[in-house]
DNA sequence: ACCGCTTGCTAAACCCTTTTAGCAAGGCCA
DNA sequence: TGGCCTTGCTAAAAGGGTTTAGCAAGCGGT
């Protein structure tokens, strides 16, 4: 309500001390020799006046603004990865920091703009997030700047947070195999382009690698591999529909993501096949969609929230080590897997 | 790359002038009497050194930080309303501003914390956003602070941005009526509690009011009104399933939101009814879900992006007027409405 | 009486920018 | 020659905090 903000000078005046004394006391410095009496007077004055330090002014001197720049292509505003920002916001809050969120839409000009905008505001560090994990190009940044890559990697900025897709891929296979599936497993959404093109998505390569490694170790082979260019529901629908037309032996679908699985559900229903009694389905991401389906879709989750949290913690961790910090992908069991019938 | 940031003093030195001169020239002041020669020297120096002003230091003097606090319950991190933040981010960027995004989860303690955090950073104004439009309680804020309520309203802060639900409700009815539906229209998701309890959701009341007004004006009546407590897919499923068991005359479903409609689709499929040939469906929100369904769901969209944009524009508009700024809800036509069969 | 140490505190510089007040030099007029 | 007005610029304060250097007083020891 009061219109004028309380300043440190106000506190010092009321305590009958200098601003220097007030500053040191409020910052809890122990190397200060100020009397217990002085401590009490300053603390009381600050409390009575409701003093709050001006972070900008303090930052001018200390070069710490308790503010982190969070620059992403489309993370904040798409549902796919909003967990990233949620985790980051929460971790930042717990550390007394705040996030300056900017979006670039992936446009290099806007990326440069965004970097300039956060540097102009003296942020303590920058997190670069992307929706689909990939190698991200980043315009030049002053060397002293702390940078963490979130769901991305970059040679110049070696600290990155990524999902542990290799283990995740293995886990998906394990779910089917442990339920007893050995034959009639189809892979939906494998895409050779993606598998090879590391730039587009480094981690999807790992996902597939994990799948293939686990299949091999268990002595299993896919009955079919349906590839498609993109991973939207209608792709899953089309591909699954075509598959079912040809083959009567399909007992399980391993879908590369939940949106494909969503389309696959529709195609299975069209064919009069029931999930999970006729066909089991497992996929990846734990998209919100997965919980809407009936039966609920069992999926290997992208740990977005944990990743976002880690990115902030790493940024603030003074002696963090470079490298890829892999976050485990938890298995979310719902109702889409059953042992094969008959 | 250079490790030390270029300051105004550097620019002034290189131009052979005082920082005062440099400051005035770079700020484009016209009341200054500085020579054309001086202008050229300063501008050149700034360009050569790549000078960027320190926003925090400037803000200390000018009390403008080009930064807006965006405080929400769960807006940024849920898919439902992420358009709000997307629009706000974009409008802010275009105005040379930046958003400090904080989330409170609706917890009053965290709301107070969040307000303190942004005020400590001297933001130019605060936008309070909520996921479900409602009357929002806001802890005390210094009077001089600019505040805009986004998807919410509040007596103490009279500038708010809301969807035009009254017109939206009318539009949904008009879609069915214009397609020829007069009988067998069921309302799915009406909820008396919500309809009356303005605190929980002021705008849903408007949505229903619009629906009822348009029905009345066209001389139509609902064949059934199924209410449910919440609006998740399984509620839509349960309610629709129960409805179809009793009644064979249902030709159209007006669902209060897309998630209900999603559940209704599943129930219709269970009953062997086809959308839109047997039953037309229309709903609200334009959730991403709506485009995934087959056939695509015709819906009256929540204009989240436009709302977010407006909130920033209003905040920065120096002579904005108090009151509710209503943003039109566009009709998104997909394939879920057809004239009634037979 | 003088030296040196400790204790408890403050003055002043500093961070970077904006803004106010005013100086110095030149021209014009009387 | 003096007074006044422009012109073109700068010194310095201000904004709110942190930090360094150092002052003053009190005390113990010689």
TrEMBL record, chains A, B:
Keywords: DNA-binding, Repressor, Transcription, Transcription regulation
Native species: Streptomyces aurantiacus
Pfam families noted in UniProt: LacI (PF00356), Peripla_BP_3 (PF13377)
Residues annotated as domain HTH lacI-type: 6-62
Matching PROSITE patterns: HTH_LACI_2
SUPFAM superfamilies in the cross-refs: lambda repressor-like DNA-binding domains (SSF47413), Periplasmic binding protein-like I (SSF53822)
CDD domains in the cross-refs: HTH_LacI (cd01392), PBP1_sucrose_transcription_regulator (cd06288)
Protein name stated in the entry: LacI family transcriptional regulator
GO molecular function terms listed in the Swiss-Prot or TrEMBL record: DNA-binding transcription factor activity; transcription cis-regulatory region binding
